[in-house]
Amino acid sequence: MAKRVAVLLAGCGVFDGSEIHEASAVLVHLSREGAQAEVYAPNIPQMHVVDHVKGQPTAEQRNVLVESARIARGNIKDLATLDVKGLDALIIPGGFGVAKNLSTWATQGKNCSVSKEVEAVLRAFHAAHKPIGLCCISPVLAAKIFPGCEVTVGHDTECEQWPYAKTAEAMKELGCRHINSQVTEAHVDARNRLVSTSAFMCNAPIHQVHDGIGSMVREVLRLA
């Protein structure tokens, strides 16, 4: 039987939704490994809409489910309908939508709250001992919800290659253990069944980001 994996999206576009290359890489690697992806997103308004040419917010209003459907080619379900019993694993790609639409990390950092619906899904998979894959900024969700967990967002020392390394320090303040890793690697927290990889937290060539996500997907399926 093919493993059934829920993929949770947060919109469409790096600055206000899910990072499209990361979401696509997750879907490609799941397909390559013979797993069945089921894509979900919350039916909520986006925090805001960003013009990806100018890098500036606009006055537009968009819906997270509707925008996520662009990546899923229309084959998507409302997160409210997710039933953990019929699924083997959960994967959450990154993108600022995780920090803006699934949580308030973008504005509040370690003092953020996670969407009740998203938190309930994460806790359900965790309670069922089913693996959760996280990439880029999405490990902050686990850091907030599961104190003491182990995750990676790459490195904890800021430099040209790791421009978002301060995220690791904020996660440590939440009581989680941050594991430094390379962009092509995934870290496995066996106790919590969490698998994380840095993806675009690293200023790396896109094929290396793709390879790291592949490592994460394979580890998730190994645990499923």
Automatic annotation (TrEMBL):
InterPro entries, sorted: Class_I_gatase-like
NCBIfam families: PRK11780.1
UniProt protein name: GAL3B protein
The organism of origin for this protein: Pheucticus melanocephalus
